Amino acid sequence: MKHLILTLLSVGLISAHAEVTKDNFGITRDGESVERYTLKNKHGLVAKVITLGGIINELHVPDRAGKTADIALGFDTLAEYEEHNGGVFFGCITGRVANRIAGGKFDLDGKSYTLDLHPKTNFHLHGGLKGFSKVIWKAEVVTDPRGPALRLTYLSKDGDQGFPGNLKTSVTYVLTEEDALVIEYEAATDKATPINLTNHTYFNLAGAGSGTVLDHRLTLQSQRYLETDADLLPTGKLLPVAGTAFDFTKSEVIGSRFDQISIGGYDHAFVLADKPQTKPALAAEVHEPKSGRVMRILTDQPGIQLYTATYTTPLKGKNGAGYDRFHGLCLETQHHPDSVHHAEFPTTILRPGETYRTTTIHQFSSR
Does the active-site annotation cover 335? Predict the structure, then answer.
């Protein structure tokens, strides 16, 4: 790894105060090699990404006293990701279409398409049984003036998981010298196809494995949320958050109103804007009072999904830590769920000649 760092320095890919290193993370059940890349900025923030699913395996961020902790839930071994990540989706890229598609079917340009269903449900979830979260991405260290950067690419072939079109996708992670993790998505297709990409990291700003996130404080730049049915599929109605357990327009303790929510926690889509924005704007802020860590999320997407690990069952995580319900929270920037069945929602259809681009920024600080 030392040789790799020196090589990167010599060609100007990283600064003398930042590092990009690579190691082997393991071999999949199918015999494919998985690499892990470590990005480190000049302030000591560290992001580790594996090529299986583009998973953020670790994310180390300092608290108000300068003590660093890993705030991303995950596993120590590749075997554990292969065993469990079809259910929890720790840290991964989700696509082609994140979130739910009702009935696992949709019509597009006069043709009907059938997708697989998530086990024991009547909906397609997060791109399918072997969606973007479960494939090996090609990795390349890239030059970026903002800080150490890694670009992942994947070609999803026509018919993959039932979706039309050869879809070329890239996801770039940049760990900036301003202490932000930037995720940039880009894709192009040769046939019209739905696309809705996001990252599914479970955050615990007190440190992964430290317990629940129920005392974290959350602010959302959202005045409306999506009404859902029993399968958490949108009905099409956008409801005001005012006066409900979904009102985070002012900082609220995340676990303070679970008794008002039918599922006993959050797994809900919030509206940020009526359409995709031209540049990232503030969407959410999370504050963990004991450590002082703050995460602000900026995005150009029209929606964000709040998930509080409501359905997570007990698991052994990194360093032997136990994970359970409410031990992490996801803030998944995206288009609205099941948009293929709701013409009133911003479209998720990408057509030949168009380029899908979206950016989400996780800005870290403390107070």
Answer: no
